[in-house]
Amino acid sequence: MRITANPLRGQQFPAVLLLVAAGLGLLLANLPTHDAIAGLLDAHLAVPGTALDLSIAHWVSDGLLAVFFLVVAIELRHELTHGELDSPRKAVQPAIAATGGVLVPILVYLLIAGGPETASGWPIPTATDIAFALGVLAMFGRGLPSRVRVFLLALAILDDIIGIVFIAVLFAHDVQWLLFVLALVGVAVFWVLSRLLHAKGHPLIAVAMTVVGVVTWALVASSGVHATIAGVMLGLVMAPVPAGRTRHALEPTVNGVILPVFAFVAAFVVIPAVAPTELSPAFWAIVVALPVGKIVGITVFGWFAMRIRPRGADPALPFADIVAAGALGGIGFTVSLLLANLAFAADAGLRDQAILGVLVGSLLALLLSAVIVSLRARWYRRLAGAPSGERVASDRGAEDA
């Protein structure tokens, strides 16, 4: 097991921290502390001279979460340019699996909650929480080959990018196109500055990049497009060396502060005092679509992708490894919570039930994936200790699975 000097740079501790923060938010929302905390989260903070006037809860989901997606986009760009996904031949397989991990949960959701009041929640179960999924993989997957992590990371990031596209397209409101075009200009300036920083390394350039990044975020937020889109765009265009340093610098803050704070705020919902049969179809649709829709979609599409891989490509992942990745993909959490807030923003009761659905569905997926990943990791550890002849035979059998 890899030991990190700072636990916030690892995968296990941040996942536990995220779960504790969500549990604490849910607990305090259902105690007498509710009114005081709710009042604080609803308090507005405005930026003088701008159109930005957001509640503290929205500063968390629109501002802090944009930093998280900046880091996500940096990691995606690295994988696409210098990592395991640096060619279409490598990227196509997780992309196909990610497509299944989006389409099948949508279908499951609409089959259960396709009525006029709840149908708008169909994007909610499409996302995979990268931090949680990789945390579970780190905790229970000792012995799994690294390509399983790469496959999971790729499809999880692609899932989240798809979720962000949904946010940009479906939940934009009264878009001010001039402001959004100005934001794109800011992204272009950021791109130029990042390359100057890559070439010269002058600290004033880094300061200028920070200012341009904040202004770009403000323009996106004011344009009516969800502000997290700014983080994605900036992360994708940043030059490699500054991007790597930025990711390294921000990782502890993202894992130790931003994601736990968002998890607390998003999970701060009152559990409805109703019988299970009286819960909204949206709740049940999400509870089923996350653990079941994800594992079915990723497994079926992933298996198909492995069957059609190009000649000369890396060996196919065994079917059981794809199942493990599919189970991990059902941990929706971060982006699913954000989508639940947006999909039912006009109906607080329905929104809270959708959030509860995300928490329950993600917890079920977490438990299921922990079992499957543990069994798979045990098989690999046993295989590693087997005589070489048995190992070769088992490898061939696994590839054919």
UniProtKB/TrEMBL annotation:
Bilayer topology annotation: Multi-pass membrane protein
Compartment annotation: Cell inner membrane; Cell membrane
This protein's UniProt keywords: Antiport, Cell membrane, Ion transport, Membrane, Sodium, Sodium transport, Transmembrane, Transmembrane helix, Transport
Top-level taxon of origin: Bacteria
Reactions this protein catalyses: Na(+)(in) + 2 H(+)(out) = Na(+)(out) + 2 H(+)(in)
InterPro entries (UniProt xref): Na/H_antiporter_dom_sf, NhaA
Entry's transmembrane regions: 12-31, 56-74, 95-114, 120-138, 150-171, 177-197, 204-221, 227-244, 256-275, 281-304, 316-342, 354-375
Functional description taken from the UniProt entry: Na(+)/H(+) antiporter that extrudes sodium in exchange for external protons.
Family listed: Belongs to the NhaA Na(+)/H(+) (TC 2.A.33) antiporter family.
Protein known as: Na(+)/H(+) antiporter NhaA
Organism this protein belongs to: Microbacterium sufflavum
Lineage, broadest ranks: Bacteria, Bacillati, Actinomycetota, Actinomycetes, Micrococcales
